[in-house]
Each structure stands twice: as structure tokens, then as C-alpha cells.
Amino acid sequence: MLWNYLIIINLKEIFIKCVNIILDFSLNLESFSKDNLDQLDFLNNQFKDSLIKEKLINTEKLIMENNNEKKLLESVLILDTETTGLDENNDEVIEIGCILFHVPNRAVLSQLSFLLPVTTNDAQDINEISVKVSNVAQPWKEGINFFLKLVDSCDLIVAHNAAFDKKWFGKGNLPKLNKRWVCSMEDINWSFKKNLKSRPSVTNLALSFGIPVWNLHRALSDCYYIAEVFKKIENLESILFKATEPRYLYKAIVSYEDRLLAKNAGFRWNSPIQGAWTRKLSETEATELNFKVEILN
What is the CATH number of domain 72-243? Predict the structure, then answer.
């Protein structure tokens, strides 16, 4: 009997101890959970604060980038070249003409034109510049130096058929120009001007704005026509800003019967893709077309 009684007492003590252990564990677990939840809340708040700060920083960066883009449109250098041929590896630039144009005031700030000495000129019938005249003594090297100062002071370079003019720099006497280029024939959307082709010549562009044309195929005169056109465009800042958007080669998805839709929109057949109507456009311009297109690059 005594032995059984002692066993019962021991079992009771063991049971009480187990209950106490379970209670202590539960209390510790509750405290642990509460502490960890508080810590998680703290970390969550810190994370949210970090995200908010990051968004604010990114927003400020976007604002700064937009402001910088707007500043890029304050002054442009309208540029044109006359060359002795079409091959930049074998021919040379015989004349450079440029106008530093202030966009907000629609005003010419500076203009420059000078000849470069050459030994041959296969394009004399076009530009009417003889080899003899190109070699008359004059400070053409100083002309290049001043030209480079104008390049440094501009925000971007504008040229009609910019791909042709740009390829000559970095060859022979001409250094490479590390500026953004805008093509007034390819990059500027002239659709706001009725009865004007989407890729107009300098002559057609000038005449469409009522600007008389008296001299062609000299560098400075072509720059003058572009400058006079710019003076007449009310939303010039917006036009130039859109012209700086990235452009991609698109193919028009049109039937043979609807081919004029592509042609009138400035698409070219077989150039540069054989058997297709193609043109370089910004993504915005591509969505504004009244026919389907496919991006090629």
C-alpha cells in the first residue's frame, strides 16, 4: 500500500512538472512570436520606407533627365557638306557650311562656311566648286577650329540626309563629331504640312513654307533654308524633341492594291529591304499609321 501510494505521489509530481514545462514553453513561444512579429513589422516598415525613397529618387532622376532633354533643344547646329563624290573612303569634303540656331528665340546665333583644299572634284558639275578655287590660300584650318567650337556649343546637329553628312567626319582632315544627329529628312515628321512629301528635298521643304530658293548645292545656302523653315514652326521644340526618339526599321504590311498607303507615308520599295516597303519610324509614329507594320530591327 505504501509503495503504491509513493508511486501515485511521484506520478502526480511528474504530471505537475510536465504541465509547468508546457505552460513555460507556451509563454516563451508567445513572447517569441510577439517579438518576432514586432521585428517583422519593423523590417516591413523599413522596406516600405526604402521603396518610397527609391521611387522618389527614380522620380527625381526622371525629372532631371526630362529637364536635360529639354535643355538639349535650346540650340542646334544646322550642318551641310559639299563633297567631291559619294564615297567617304575615296572622296573628300570640299565645303562645310553651318548655322548655330537658337530654338527658343528662333534666331541665328552664328554661321560659318569655308572650303577645304582638294586635288580632284568629280562633283564640280553639281557644286560648281573648282579644284583651283579650293586651293586658294585661306585659313581653312582656323575654320575647322571655329566649326568645332560651334559643335561644342550646340545641343544636337541637324542635317538634311544626315547619314550622308555624318559619314565624312572622322575621315581625312575632319574629326569625329560626338554629338547627337537629327535628320531633317528622315527623323522630323512633316505630316503637319499638307501637300509635302514625308521625305522632302530641301527645295520642296523651303517652298512649302513660302521661302524663296535661289541657290542650290552650296553648303551654307542649304543650311539657310532649314533655318528659315525652323523660324516658321510654332511647335519647333516639340518637333525636334520627337525627332530625337529612337527609330527602328519597319515594314509595311499592305497588299498590292493598298501600296500607295505605304508610299504616301514615306515608305520606300526595295530600300533597304528587297521586296518590301520600309521606313525608319519611332514607336509613336508606328502606332499612328492607318495600316499595319512589322518591326525589322
Answer: 3.30.420.10
